[in-house]
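[Target chain]
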Amino acid sequence: MEKIRKYLLPFGWLYGAIMQLRNLLFDNQILKSSKINIPIVSVGNLSVGGTGKTPHVEWIVEHLRATKKVAILLRGYGRQTKGYLLVSKHCSSETVGDEALQYKKKFGNAEGDNKANAVAVAVCEKRVEGAKKLLEQFPDLEVIVLDDAFQHRKIKRDINILLIDTNQPYWEDNMLPAGNLREFPNGRNRADVILFTKVSNELLEDSEKKKYFIQKVRTRKELLIGFTSIKYGQIIGFDTSDFPLPDKILLVTGIANAEPFRKHVESFASVHHLAFPDHYDYTTRDMLEIHELFDTFAEENKVILTTEKDFMRLSNPSILKETRNYPWFYQKITIEMDCEQRFIEKLNEL
């Protein structure tokens, strides 16, 4: 794979040059960005794949909704629909995508929800159109949080948050298709906040290594730079049963980077990892093969564990019914950050 990617480097430079030209057109206002009448917070990255956007969006929304009426707007990656859709209890991962379903489940929906701090969740490829339609439906909205919109420059934002995976920093990567970068590294100059994600305990305690990371991205004095780590929460049964401490776990994932999750699970059980592509749509045949593999394990105390995001895709009724005779569980996660107070102060300025 590495050899093939070397041959793709010229195509990466070409793609990067096109993205650089596009950014220059926006910087010089030849291409226009639309201003929405309420504050916009954007969370995104320079690369494709898992930097941990979902738990960071959840953390931001959890803070904001304590004092403001908040909505989440995202593209709805992997859905089989197009255009603007407000996420409701009738939606599925096929219609709105797995992240949107996860946000809806966690925060409720502003339409028909009795909670005063319920959050509207909507999907739309065109963020300007999506933001305007949200405001039409919910005129009392005070903030919109954009998921994965760092390169979506047609909408102006008040806080631009860039996430960088410490295990795969952009300076060790190349442009698509030779690597995973969506644009050249100088795109970081647009960020108001840079958060290094998936930080290990070793890095948190290594002040020199942290200083190295900060120096790699620092472009101006007022830039807020912080480090966040994954905090593993409750493990919940598909049927809401309690999680036993098993001897053997069949780990099933369909996310961009499952390595930190796998290492965490290996800390308390023997693991067999079955990795599917990011945003994978599970089929009944997949479920049959997963259960056949699970049945080969000799251990009596064994379970199947997946991520909360995968659980959203597995919640499709035709798939969920296949799990009923097996011990399926999913892992909830949150984040912790070393710059929490400064970050909250920045959000409170909105």
About this structure: Residues 2-230+336-348 form a domain with the Rossmann fold fold (CATH 3.40.50.300).
